[in-house]
Structure formats: structure tokens, C-alpha cells
Design a protein that fits this description.
heterotrimer; A mainly alpha; B alpha/beta; C mainly alpha; A: mainly alpha; MetI-like fold; two-stranded antiparallel sheet; 1% strand; B: alpha/beta; 9-stranded mixed beta sheet; 3-stranded mixed beta sheet; 37% helix; elongated
């Protein structure tokens, strides 16, 4: 029996009351709360079990070619998801490429450079960006952004540098609905998350570090480079990875602007492609049998990949937290 | 006295002849003039009829639903445009009361249905080959060129194959963006069947509700394909006439069996329908029809219902709905760019309504 | 003593840097980058909200909120009544399931589980669950519920509840952590049992923060599309039944209408987007106000 003050688990003083009226109510409440907590484990376990079970026929019939082949022809029973995995990864990486510099910039600006009057509005703007539902971003993307980018941005770039070596491998194609547009929409959507997490990380930099840098005559940028970034490196990497996880799981906005072109494993960024989540939402409604199992299988692959990314991100952030607190 | 009764009899006889002739003239119908069935008791019907399936006839069914709601106030009809494939599946599973489909139920799938079902042809329409190419307002495409475009052998608009069909027209070097259906579609089935029949050497893919198009952007529903074409310069896609007109797209003239390039019009569709062979179950194919004026990619669409329905009120409602579609709604069809059925076929379909038991 | 990142080596770096001028230029460029990033983030936000406002506001007539969806999708007419009601109903049912479970779960984690193995496992799994893509939730609910029970609002609510649960657990646990232990100890000292303490002392103290977190979770759920697409079906008319029959929601309507070329259908999509964004913004702003009031009371 622990009667030291502080710490809320165990009931402390209350448990000193031992037997008596109300003890059963205590036990009941404890059980109810425990069951509620266990729900999380139960649901996660059910998700893993039921989706894997549904997908099993497809995994069994396709074997490893499910993830190594890019031939997806449901009518012939061929389910190779490589192109969709590629599309998910490519659009998410593009999103990171665009969002990370912007997010870091905003986080640094809000914490270091902004006059205090602007700090609060910036945070509000980010909150608003985060609150907009993804389907609204998708609507704007497919009706406004994609038709604009195709002829006005991608085509000129393609005409100018599409034939060049190296750079022409990527800046090629002219479709408004493409990997690049999906990447741009995803970048807009993950910026708030990456920014707010980075801000939290940057805010924990001890004054001592900053002042030491200034004491040596550093400019503000040098102070950031010497004190803030090295300190916050772990946390920022974690934030970026959480953004990556979010981008990979995004379905609706991507489905609307990626172009839904099967079999595209290409470096041409301005060409249409497909992503795992987009394929699921486009084809699930009328799929049956092995086709449906294969789509659930895509869901399982997506589930596993995003969990790996998220868990890695959190462990990196947790390690940063411990380091920051000097543990 | 005798002469007056004789002349009275003559008068009656003449009047009778007149009456018969007048009735015969007033009651005759032409292909485009369906007699409204004002004797059908729509008002006593009740129930909810959930339907799903093809987007090809969706515009027509929506108009018919709106009109039907006016005469049959006790019945609510819903139609969800999920594609022919899904429509057939929903009916088989029993989650819908009627299915709209442009393609027939495959033999292998017949066992999944809960009982025997009936095909009711409703309307037909051209499947347009819509395109979006700045500076080009009209285009001729032979079946072989069309097949090569959709199988990915022809990739730019100024390809010699396309130029051969369009003498004297300068075509830009824009890349062709092919737009197809991502969902299981009767429109895809009919379009691919046409290509397989009219250009077998060039069309090397397997026709059906889903086709493994090699390099094409895809979207759900005819409306989705229309959206890709409308928004992308250099795009080409197959869209039903109604959606294509409503989207303001330009259509290619397709080379028919007789070698003429025909625009997708209702006249072209009716010409193609005129020569189609009707099967015993009222299904037919008007694809790649002969005749100088026939539009070669004319597709019909059907409503499928079970022939035996357990709930009598529901059965009456279904009979009434199909009767409305085959009578009054036929006059609305041209307004939304669908061709009504030829009289003979329509009459056969109306007669088949009595086979719905319940 | 924490590791010092700024060391004499850093000082050497500063001194060995070429000229004072290049350092100033680099500093200026960095400042431009930082301020410019804010502009880059503001531009898409302004564009999206601007388009939604301009294109959607024309749709918001009284009919919009009361009429059923039009029979002919290509033409203007009808309204979004069933979709608005659908969104609110599905989200409410989802909240009704997720909020009690989430709050109780957080109570377990903070008041009972603490640093024990089960507690750490549950906390870890709740974090994992926040990262599960919403489409996987939709597939899951489809597999375990919709196949057996058909399309209904409840299926959608189940999927949204699964999305909300881990968020509510985490934010509620944060709020419980903020309640000072002295309050709990004082309650025990007065002879209260633990359950009584939690219900009558801790929860009321954390109420503001919990409400704020719950509202944010609801706002997030209201905007979701993917979990609803397979589970609620589609309906043109109002369906107030939770368990029977398909229904529709604003997010699903936007998704469907965004994939058509017809002006009237796209206009309906913009109107639905405006309505949905308004709902979400109101919830988010309310949540922020409640949180701010709690913070003020906390600091006062």
C-alpha cells in the first residue's frame, strides 16, 4: 500500500478504506474502465484479423506476385499491386518534398522570427487548413487545380525540358491528373500536421542553447542551424514521418486527382497513375470474389505500411522526448 | 316504307364503315409516337422500387422516375448509377428490385440469381466517341483507327492512321489521352464488342464489362469519362450521347460497315436498330449494323427484374413502372437524347410485362 | 546537464565563415524562406476557401436545407436536406459510441493503468490506431457489419466511431493529466471512493478540455468520406432510420458530384462543400473557444 502523495494509479489513500460500502462500486467502475480500454486492443485486433481473413484468398492465389507484379486485370484473375504501391509511395514522397521545406519554414518562423502579434494568427491559419475535410481538397483539386496545371504548368515544362537527360526523366508528361497534382494536394493536407509537431519540438529548445549561439555572435539563421535544428532533429524527423503516414493513407483527395491509370510504374511525374487507397475506393463497390479479396488485400498492405511508418515515427519522437528531458 | 328502311340500313352501314376507318386511323402509331396508356391504373400502386445499374441510360431513367412520380404518387422509385456490373450483382443478391444494364448476364453468373429473370429493352442510344482537341471541331475515325487508339498503338493526334481518315485536316501533335471506365460497365462491353467485331486484327484485347486497356485514365460512370474528356486537351473517350451532349463535347464520326462516316445521332441509332435481330428473350445487338445511315456503335439497354415476385403489391408496382417506361416515357426519350424502341420490339416488351408474376 | 550543442566548434564555424556579408546574406535568405513559407501555406488555403465560398454560396437557399435530392442529377433543383441530416445523424451516433468508450478508456489509462504493462500496451495501440487509414476502417466495418446487416447509417457510424476513439482517448488522457493531483487527494481525504472521485471531481475539472478534444474529433469525423462510401449506400430521400436502409451524407455527395462534368451537379458539390466546411469550422472554433476558456481559468 503506497501512501505517498502524487501518482494517481492505485487509489492510494482510498484503498486504505479497505472493505466497506462502495468497494464493490469501485471494483465495478474499475472493470468498466478496463473494458473500455481493452476495446482499443479488441478493435485493432479485429481489424487486423478480419481484413487479413477476407484478403487471404487473394494472397493465396497470387502469392508474392501480389506485390511484385504490376498487372492488375480483375477479369482475368490477375492482381499485381506493384503499380499502386508505387503510386502511393511516389505521391507521398512528392508530398513530403513539397511540404517539409514549407512546414519547417513556418514552424521556425512562428517560433523564432515572427513578431508576437502574428504568431497566434499563423496558428489559426494552420488549424483552419487542418480542419478542411479531404474531400473538399479533392473537389477543388479536380475541378480547379488539375485542369489548370495540365495545360499551363506541366505542358510548358514538358515541352521545355521533357527531352533532357535526368531532369527529363521526371519532368515529363502533361496530364493535369497526375502523380504531381496528387503530391501537391497531399502536401497541402499534411503541412498542418508536420508544422504543428515541428513547432512543438522547436519550442522545447532550451534557452541556454540559443543564448550560447547568440553569445558567439551568430546571426539568427546561424543560431537556428547550430542550436535549434540539431537539437530538434529527432523530433522533426518524427514529425515528417507522421506526415508521410498521413499522406500514404489519404484516399479521397488522391482518388479524384491522380488519374486512375493502371499499370503506371514510371518516373514521369506529370503522368496519371493510381494509388492503393484510390484503387480500393474506385473498384470496391462492384467487386466480388477474388477481386474483392484482392482489394481488401490492398487495404492490408496499406494498413501494415502505415503502421510501420507511424510506429517508427513515434519511437523516434519518443527517443527525442527522452533526450530532450535529459533522461 | 321499304325504301326508307333500306336507305336507313345503308346509312348505318356507311356510318359503321366510317366509324371503323376513323378508329383505325386515330389509333395508328408510328415509331416515334407512343400512345400514352391512359387506361393504366398508376394511382393505385404503392411501394418503393430500388434500382441500380448502368449509367448509360441514367439520364433517361431519372426523367422517367420524375414523370412516374407524377402519375403514381404512391410509388417511390430510386436509381443508383453504379454501373451495369454492380446493377446485375445487386439484383442477384436481392438488394435491389430492378437492375439497369447494357450488357447481358453471363452464363456463369446466372446461378447467382435467386430465380429466373426477364430482360425488358427500354431505350437505345449511340455511344459517342467524344474528343477534346483544340482547333479541331470534327473528326472521322474508322473502326481500325479507333481500335489502335484505344489499344495504345496510336499515341499522338497527328499519327498517319488518323490523318488517313481525315484528308485535308491538319492535326496537332498533341499526345492522346484515352479515357475509359474504371467500373464494370455495359457501355464498355458494347464499345469493346464493336471494336472486336469491326476491327478484329487491331483490337487485341478481350471485350467485356471490364477491359484491360493498356494506357488510359479511368473514371466512374459515363459522367466520369465525360469529365476527363471535357477537362483534358487531347482526350478521347466513349460516352453515351445523352451525357456527351449535356457536357458539350465534340463527337467523332465513326466509319460504319458500309464504309460511311456517320455522326452519333438518334436517326443513326434508329437506322441501326431497324435491322437488328431480336432474340426470344427480347435481347438484341445493334452494334456494327449494316446500312449506309446506321451509326455503328448503337447500344440498347435493358431493365432486368425477376419473373416471380413474392409481394403482390411490389409486383404490381414493378409492372406499372415498366409499363410507364415502355409507354409514356418513350416520348420523353428523345428529349434526353435516347432513341425510343421500334414499335414491334416495344409491343413485345409490353406483352412480356404480363409474365411478371406475383 | 544537457548536452551542449553549441560548442567551441560552432564558434570556429562562425569565425571561419568567409565574410560577414555572406553570413548576412544567408541570414536574409533564411528569413525570406521562413516568411515565404507562411505565404505559401496561406495561398492554397485562401484559394480553397475562396472557391468554396464563391461557388457554393449561391446554392444556400432555404430549399437547399429542406428539399430532397433531385431525381435528375444533371439539372439544378432539389436540395441537400437528406445529406445534411445524414451527416449530422451519422456523426452523432458515432460520437454517442466513441465518446463514452473513449473517455472511460482514458480514465482507465490515467487513473488505473498508469505505467503498467497493460496501460502502456493500450496507449501504444491507441497511438497506432490513430494512424490507421480511414479506408481500412471502412473495409473493416464492411466486412464485419455491412455484409451481414446491409447498408445503413449505423455502419457508417461504426466506422467513424473507430476513427474517433483513439483521438478521444489521447486528448482525454492529456486533459486528465492536467488535473492536479491535489484535487484527487483532497477528495480521498474527505472519504470519497475512487470512482466517486473520478466522476465528481476529476471529470468536472477536466470537462472543458475533454469537450474541446471531443469536438475536434467530431469535426474530423464529420468530414470523412472513405469510411462511408461502402457502408451507407446512397439515397435520394430523407432516411431517419439508423439501422434500416441506405442513406447519404454531405461528404459522399461531394465525392460523387465531383466526378461529373455537369454544371448543376458540380454546383451542388460546391454547395455541399460549403455546408460541410461550415459545420466543421463551427465545431473547430467552438472547441478552440472552450479550450481557451479552460486555459484562462487554469492560469488565473
Amino acid at each position: 500500500m503506497d501512501i505517498t502523495p502524487g501518482g494517481s494509479s492505485g487509489g492510494d489513500v482510498a484503498s486504505l478504506l479497505g472493505v466497506g460500502p462502495g468497494r464493490r462500486a469501485d471494483q465495478l467502475f474499475h472493470s468498466v474502465a478496463l473494458v473500455a480500454g481493452l476495446f482499443v486492443l479488441a478493435i485493432l485486433g479485429l481489424i487486423a484479423a478480419s481484413t487479413t481473413h477476407e484478403a487471404w484468398p487473394a494472397f493465396r492465389s497470387q502469392g508474392l506476385s501480389f506485390v511484385t507484379s504490376s498487372t492488375w486485370i480483375p477479369a482475368e484473375g490477375k492482381f499485381g499491386a506493384l503499380a499502386f504501391i508505387y503510386g502511393t509511395v511516389l505521391s507521398s514522397l512528392l508530398a513530403l518534398l513539397l511540404a517539409v521545406p514549407v512546414s519547417l519554414g513556418i514552424a521556425l518562423y512562428a517560433n523564432e522570427a515572427a513578431p508576437s502579434r502574428i504568431r497566434r494568427p499563423i496558428i489559426y491559419v494552420l488549424d483552419l487548413l487542418a480542419a478542411i475535410p479531404s474531400v473538399v481538397y479533392g473537389l477543388w483539386g479536380v475541378i480547379v487545380l488539375a485542369p489548370f496545371l495540365g495545360p499551363n504548368v506541366y505542358s510548358p515544362i514538358n515541352d521545355a525540358v521533357g527531352g533532357w537527360p535526368v531532369i527529363g526523366w521526371f519532368l515529363n508528361g502533361s496530364s493535369g491528373r497526375s502523380f504531381m497534382t496528387a503530391g501537391i494536394i497531399l502536401a497541402i493536407m499534411i503541412t498542418p500536421i508536420v508544422t504543428s509537431l515541428s513547432r512543438e519540438v522547436i519550442a522545447t529548445v532550451p534557452r541556454a542553447q540559443r543564448e550560447a549561439a547568440y553569445a558567439m555572435g551568430a546571426t539568427r539563421w546561424e543560431m537556428i542551424r547550430l542550436a535549434v535544428l540539431p537539437w530538434g532533429r529527432g523530433g522533426i524527423v518524427g514529425a515528417i514521418m507522421l506526415g508521410l503516414g498521413r499522406a500514404m493513407g489519404e484516399t479521397i483527395a488522391v482518388a479524384l486527382v491522380i488519374g486512375s491509370q493502371a499499370g503506371q510504374v514510371t518516373t514521369h511525374l506529370f503522368e496519371a497513375g493510381d494509388s492503393m487507397a484510390a484503387v480500393i475506393v474506385n473498384q470496391f463497390g462492384e467487386a466480388s470474389g477474388t477481386h474483392r479479396a484482392a482489394l481488401v488485400g490492398l487495404g492490408v498492405v496499406l494498413f501494415v505500411v502505415t503502421i510501420i511508418v507511424n510506429v517508427s515515427a513515434r519511437s523516434i519522437v519518443a527517443r527525442f522526448d527522452r533526450q530532450a528531458q535529459g533522461i | 316504307m321499304r325504301s326508307s328502311s333500306k336507305s336507313l340500313a345503308l346509312l348505318v352501314a356507311v356510318l359503321a364503315v366510317f366509324g371503323v376507318v376513323a378508329a383505325a386511323c386515330g389509333g395508328s402509331t408510328s415509331d416515334s409516337d407512343a400512345k400514352p396508356d391512359s387506361t393504366y391504373d398508376y394511382a393505385s400502386l404503392s411501394g418503393t422500387l430500388n434500382g441500380s445499374g448502368a449509367t448509360f441510360p441514367k439520364a433517361f431513367y431519372e426523367e422517367a422516375i420524375a414523370g412516374f412520380a407524377g402519375v403514381a404518387k404512391g410509388v417511390t422509385v430510386n436509381y443508383n448509377g453504379t454501373g451495369s456490373g454492380q446493377g446485375k450483382k445487386d439484383l442477384a443478391a436481392g438488394t435491389s428490385d430492378w437492375a439497369g444494364t447494357d450488357s447481358l448476364v453471363a452464363d456463369a453468373d446466372k446461378a447467382t440469381f435467386k430465380g429466373p429473370f426477364l430482360y425488358f429493352p427500354t431505350v437505345a442510344a449511340p455511344i459517342t466517341v467524344s474528343f477534346n482537341l483544340s482547333g479541331v471541331k470534327s473528326l472521322n475515325l474508322s473502326a481500325a483507327t479507333l481500335a489502335r487508339i484505344f489499344t495504345g498503338s496510336v499515341t499522338t493526334w497527328n499519327d498517319p492512321a488518323i490523318s488517313a481518315d481525315n484528308a485535308g485536316v491538319t492535326l496537332p501533335s498533341t499526345k492522346i489521352t484515352v479515357a475509359v471506365r474504371s467500373d464494370g460497365s455495359g457501355t464498355t462491353s458494347n464499345f469493346s464488342k464493336f471494336l472486336a467485331a469491326a476491327a478484329p486484327e487491331a483490337f487485341t484485347l478481350t471485350a467485356g464489362d471490364t477491359v484491360a486497356w493498356p494506357s488510359a485514365q479511368s473514371a466512374k460512370g459515363n459522367a466520369g469519362v465525360a469529365q476527363i474528356v471535357k477537362a483534358t486537351n487531347g482526350a478521347i473517350g466513349y460516352v453515351d450521347l445523352s451525357d456527351a451532349v449535356a457536357s458539350g463535347l465534340a463527337f467523332a464520326s465513326i466509319g460504319n460497315k458500309d464504309g460511311k462516316f456517320v455522326q452519333p445521332t438518334l436517326e443513326g441509332a434508329s437506322a441501326a436498330l431497324a435491322g437488328a435481330t431480336i432474340n426470344a428473350d427480347l435481347t438484341y445487338s445493334a452494334l456494327n449494323a449494316a446500312g449506309a445511315d446506321s451509326y455503328p456503335i448503337t447500344a440498347g439497354t435493358y431493365i432486368i427484374v425477376y419473373s416471380s415476385i413474392s409481394n403482390p403489391t411490389q409486383a404490381s408496382a414493378i409492372r406499372g413502372w415498366i409499363n410507364y417506361v415502355l409507354t409514356e416515357a418513350q416520348t420523353i426519350a428523345p428529349e434526353v437524347d435516347f432513341a425510343p424502341l421500334p414499335t414491334a420490339l416495344r409491343d413485345k416488351a409490353i406483352a412480356q410485362i404480363a409474365s411478371i408474376q406475383g | 546537464m544537457n548536452e551542449l550543442f553549441v560548442t567551441t566548434e560552432s564558434g570556429d564555424l562562425l569565425l571561419s565563415d568567409t565574410t560577414k556579408r555572406s553570413r548576412r546574406i544567408r541570414n536574409r535568405l533564411a528569413s525570406i524562406w521562413m516568411a515565404g513559407s507562411v505565404l505559401v501555406a496561406v495561398v492554397p488555403l485562401a484559394l480553397v476557401i475562396g472557391y468554396v465560398l464563391i461557388k457554393g454560396v449561391g446554392q444556400l437557399t432555404p430549399d437547399w436545407f429542406t428539399k430532397d435530392l433531385p431525381a435528375v442529377t444533371r439539372r439544378a433543383g432539389g436540395g441537400m436536406g437528406p445529406a445534411i441530416v445524414g451527416t449530422l445523424l451519422i456523426t452523432a451516433v458515432a460520437a454517442g459510441m466513441a465518446v463514452p468508450l473513449g473517455v472511460l478508456g482514458a480514465i482507465y489509462l490515467h487513473e488505473y493503468g498508469g505505467r503498467g504493462r497493460l496501460g502502456r500496451l493500450i496507449r501504444f495501440m491507441a497511438d497506432v490506431m490513430t494512424g490507421v487509414p480511414s479506408i481500412v476502417m471502412g473495409l473493416f466495418v464492411y466486412t464485419v457489419w455491412t455484409i451481414a446487416h446491409g447498408l445503413s447509417a449505423f455502419g457508417g457510424a461504426l466506422a467513424l466511431a473507430c476513427l474517433m476513439l483513439p483521438i478521444i482517448i489521447r486528448t482525454t488522457e492529456e486533459m486528465l493529466r492536467l488535473v492536479p493531483d491535489e484535487l484527487r487527494q483532497a477528495s480521498y481525504a474527505l472519504g470519497n471512493r475512487k470512482w466517486r472521485t473520478i466522476l465528481t471531481v476529476v471529470l468536472p475539472a477536466a470537462f472543458g478540455g475533454i469537450t474541446s478534444g471531443v469536438m475536434l474529433a467530431i469535426a474530423r469525423a464529420a468530414g470523412e468520406t472513405a469510411p462511408l462510401v461502402f457502408t451507407i449506400g446512397a439515397a435520394r430521400n430523407l432516411n431517419l432510420s439508423i439501422f434500416n436502409g441506405p442513406t447519404t451524407a454531405l461528404s459522399v455527395q461531394i465525392f460523387g458530384n465531383a466526378q461529373t462534368p455537369f454544371e448543376a451537379a458540380q454546383a451542388r458539390a460546391w454547395g455541399a462543400a460549403l455546408t460541410l466546411v461550415a459545420i466543421v469550422f463551427i465545431l473547430t472554433i467552438l472547441a478552440r473557444i472552450v479550450a481557451a476558456r479552460v486555459a484562462r481559468r487554469h492560469n488565473a
